[in-house]
Amino acid sequence: MASGDASSFIDALGRLARAKKGGMTQIAKETGLARESLYRALGKDGNPELMTILKVISALGLTLEAKMQSNA
């Protein structure tokens, strides 16, 4: 995360999930998670577990990559 702000990342992930064809209902089907739980987890005050994030990322056809910081 370039900004280092987890809430911005979760918000963006939620927006992508809602924008996908079929929306949150489709994401729920693909992840095996309840639609209502996804709305809560990816909502304004959401605090999703890592496994939820990984499942949603996968359902969106995305990958999560970690890179060493150049100043580390």
Set down the secondary structure blueprint.
Elements: H1 6-19, H2 23-31, H3 35-41, H4 50-59
Structure in words:
InterPro entries: HI1420, Lambda_DNA-bd_dom_sf. GO terms for molecular function: DNA binding. This is Addiction module antidote protein. The protein has 72 residues and is mostly helical. The protein has helices at 6-19, 23-31, 35-41, 50-59. The protein starts with 5 loop residues before the first helix and ends in a 13-residue tail after the last helix. The model has no long low-confidence stretch (mean pLDDT 92).
What's the short version?
This protein is an all-alpha fold and 72 residues long. 56% of the residues lie in helices and 0% in strands. It is globular and about 40 Å long.
Q: Which parts are unreliable, with pLDDT below 50 for 5 consecutive residues or more?
A: none
Percentage of residues in DSSP E strands: under 5%
Oligomer class? single chain
Shape summary: globular
Q: Round the mean pLDDT to the nearest integer and report it.
A: 92
Query: How many helices in DSSP terms?
Result: 4
Beta strands, count: 0
Order of helices and strands: HHHH
Helix content bin: 55-70%
Radius of gyration: 13 Å
Q: For the record, give the distance between the C-alpha atoms at the N and C termini, rounded to a whole number.
A: 15 Å
Q: Would you tell me the structural class of the helices and strands?
A: mainly alpha
Organism: Agrobacterium genomosp. 2 str. CFBP 5494
Pfam family, one: dnstrm_HI1420
GO molecular function: DNA binding
Protein name: Addiction module antidote protein
